[in-house]
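A further point concerns the way the authors explain their paired sequence and structure data. Showing the layout once, in full, would remove most of the difficulty. For illustration, here is how one protein appears when written out as sequence plus structure tokens:
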Amino acid sequence: MGEAFTGLADDVNTVGYNPAGLAFLSRQEAAFMHHEYVSEIRQDYLAYAVPTRNWGTLGLSANMLRVSPFSAYDANDTPQGAVSAQDAALSLAYAKNWGGLGFGVSGKQIRSRLADVSASGSAWDMGALWAVDSQLILGAALQNVGSDLKYISEAFPLPLTGKLGASYKIKILETGRLIGALDAGFPKDSSPHLRAGLELAPVHFAAVRLGYNGSLD
């Protein structure tokens, strides 16, 4: 779907896109993912959400990227053994639905390590989701509001981003649906971009998806 999820936000993975989407979940959901990149880089992700009867929905997620040990050299190209790297983020989210208007917030702890040097920080995501009717949903989110990550004396700002999104659902056949989604992203340190997605699910257990991500270079 090209990551066009701000105005769709209809499953547990919304913890990382627009936490307000949690407010519309009707049952517990969990997601697990393992991704093998090239060059011995691995990513593991899990998310879980549980709606309560009267108090909104709670969600959490963990995201970890690991690099297997690789050769290290000093400034004179002398071998220094092997080093590795790892990034991790742990998020805790809450959302509440008020008559078709959902609000959500997520706090996350971020830690990054390269060899024996590490940096850590915390950040907040927040969002809103408005179910205009059974077909049209509008969303907005602000991500990565927080402190810089600092390695020794050099600090790196988090990718602060504002997003607007919309999705539209059309029922087809008896159990199928067609969904179109569009996102506009406004990063602090780069140009605005568009993301778009289309999902065709002729039956409830199978879908074909297409996506465009304008943030990729």
